Amino acid sequence: MGTTRLTMAQALVKYLVAQKVEIEDEIQPLVPAVWSIFGHGNVAGLGEALYQQRESLPTLRAHNEQAMTLAAVAFAKTRRRRQFMACTTSIGPGATNMVTAAAVAHVNRLPVLLLPGDSFATRAPDPVLQQIENFNDPNITANDCFKPVSRYWDRINRPEQLLDSLPRAFQVLTDPARCGPVTLCMPQDVQTEAWDYPASFFEQNVHRPVRPEPDRGQLERALERVRASRRPLIVAGGGVHYAQACDELAAFASSQGIPVAETQAGKGALRWDHPMAVGAIGVTGTSAANTLAAEADLVIAIGTRLQDFTTASRSLFEHPGTTIIGLNTCVFDSGKHHAVPLVADARRGLESLATGLQGRQSATGWLAKVADLKAAWNQVVAEAFSPDAGRKPSDAEVIGAVHRAAGDNGTVVCAAGGLPGELHALWQNRRNDDYHLEYGYSCMGYEIPGGMAVKMADPSRDVYVMVGDGSYLMMNSEIATSVAMGLKLVVVVLNNHGFACINRLQQACGGAPFNNLWKDVSTAVAGMPDVDFAAHAASLGAASMNVTTIAELDEALESAREFERTVVIALETDHAATTGAGGAWWDVAVPESSGREAVLEARDRYVEAKKKQGR
Fold it and tell me: What CATH number is given for 388-572 in this structure?
């Protein structure tokens, strides 16, 4: 058996290049690119290795380590986990900047390979620049912060450790049940050390999708529950998309007469006009989905974690004796809320259920109720999208303008704040891939790097990023990256002068407006800053414009088509206006003791709401 003498970094990069994936009968790179911000902990070792392979493995340059990793997360989400990216930083702040994005990937079950530099394995020059010293354990570095937010974590202290660690890492990255971020810490001296690697280690390895079949016993138990149901409901999560099971879900829902509600990650599993599509569920849900959830005698939860926003903090499924079937590749998720587990790929599970349920139909009255509730909610959407010229635009009205502009070829991208709630309830999916939100970790700052990655993953799409002024101020640097890389985005900045979503929540919990809107910041002694977001975006290389009305926004969105580079459109919005319809309770604890009457009243409401909290 032949060997090849390479540095650890060179071997790692060569292994990445050898990993392929079969997508629609075509062999493609499993890792199509590496994001990098170099520092002293990775520029000499991994930097040189990436330079040598720059033709076969492009190295992308960002402005912020968290942003580039968020972009990698968004890329994996858009590519339905069939491809993913690697990210490398130096040790120190570059590494810890990635921790938040690693948590985003972990919560959302998305693959990303993290390659932070590390301090010297020999410890000869310790403490090096940016090294965190633990007084009791010299093995601990800043990279230990990645342990709780990684599905697999290792520190490569010898070059030959790659032979074991890299295959294990890729097992996790490509496993539908264990999928999530992998962190391989790379001491900077070890990156540069050479070893004689077996040539077979670098042979092309083609990964193909794994689709676990349901266990016969679990399937029979699930079939028995579905046959006995009269008012079933499907909750579609992100697993439907990752399994590419949207068509199977549409066919199953139609043949069985089962309405489909969607989580944030699952939104778009059905087109909005599918007869069984009842829209968003839970805290940010439609009145149609939430009414059906309260009355359902069976819930088939497909590819969802059933987090608190989906279940209204475990208060949504009110019918006594409601059974939940957890169809999920992940055993951990399949049994949540005392569910009857059905551990399987979403597509295979739906196919098996369909075969075993031929001829079954839901109660006629249930189907009639679905139609009536859908019609009523569609009227709510139409009214929410209609501009009210008597005040500043609402979030819903801006969403309506973006929805009109997006047409059949646009994808909307968003993350945290009040916008995700309005988008979840109001956005009417024309396609399975026109809605991209990160709401598992609700990470402010995801929007612009996420939009950039959506465009990178599918250049044919028109990408519309919706972002509040708070998130924009947190993370806007990748506007410059999008311009440099020729990745055109249309970014709509909704300026409500602060953190309006949390301001509304604060008051709903009885609190006084405090420290969220700029006008309520007691330490802002110089007054509220008047940020010109269009001017700022122009300084980063984008085309930009300010508008004041929805009519002007419609015109600006139309004119944005003429530009070949990123366009940023800014407008002031009403910080207090929300759609009002739909939604459900969310468990946010209210103080039991307070000197303010508004807090005590909110506490009484909270205690009453807790009575509905069940499984």
Answer: 3.40.50.970
Is the previous residue joined to 125 through a cis bond, with omega within 30 degrees of 0?
Answer: no
Q: Chain-wide mean pLDDT for the chain? A: 96
Are 450 and 112 in contact, with CB atoms under 8 Å apart? no
pLDDT winner (highest mean) among 419-428, 500-509, 604-613? 419-428
Sign of CA dihedral 158, 163, 168, 174: positive
CA distances 460 to 107, 399, 411, 488, Å, are 28, 22, 10, 11
Q: Where are the domains of the chain?
A: 3-207, 216-377, 388-572, 586-615
Structure confidence at residue 321 as a pLDDT band (50, 70, 90) = confident
Q: Are 247 and 211 in contact (CB under 8 A)?
A: no
CB 230 within 8 A of CB 195: no
Six-digit token pair at 322? 């409601």
DSSP H helical ranges for 437-565: 447-457, 469-474, 478-485, 500-508, 533-539, 550-559
> Nearest-CA neighbor of 453 among 32, 49, 147?
32
DSSP string, 154-172: EE--SGGGHHHHHHHHHHH
Angle at 166 between CA 168 and CA 452, to 5 degrees: 100
Q: Give the Cα separation of 121 and 124 in Å (integer).
A: 8
- Interatomic CA distance for residues 403 and 317, integer angstroms: 31
- For the segment 581-602, the average pLDDT, to the nearest whole number, is 94
Listed in sequence order, the DSSP H helices in 112-245 are 162-174, 188-191, 216-228, 238-242
- For 231, residues 6+ apart whose C-beta sits below 8 A from its C-beta are 292, 295, 296, 297, 298, 319, 362, 363, 366
Classify residue 54 by burial, with Cβ atoms within 10 Å: 0-12, 13-18, 19+.
exposed
pLDDT at position 176 is 96
Nearest CA to 129 out of 39, 8, 49, 189 is that of 39
Residue 3 pairs in a beta bridge with 198
Rg (CA), the chain: 25
Model pLDDT for residues 178-231, shown as the tens digit of each residue = 999 999 999 999 999 999 999 999 999 999 989 999 999 999 999 999 999 999
End-to-end CA distance of the chain: 58
Q: How far does CA 435 lie from the centroid of its chain?
A: 11
CB 571 within 8 A of CB 494: yes
Contact call for residues 597 and 591 (beta carbons, < 8 A): no
pLDDT 10s digits, 365-385: 999 999 999 999 999 999 999
Please choose, from the candidates 97, 115, 125, the residue with its C-alpha nearest in 3D space to the C-alpha of residue 16.
115
Q: What is the mean pLDDT of residues 20-24?
A: 96
Confidence class for position 6, pLDDT limits 50, 70, 90: very high
CATH 3.40.50.970 corresponds to the domain 3-207: yes
CATH architecture of residue range(s) 216-377: 3-Layer(aba) Sandwich (3.40)
Helix (H, G, I), strand (E, B) or coil at 53: coil
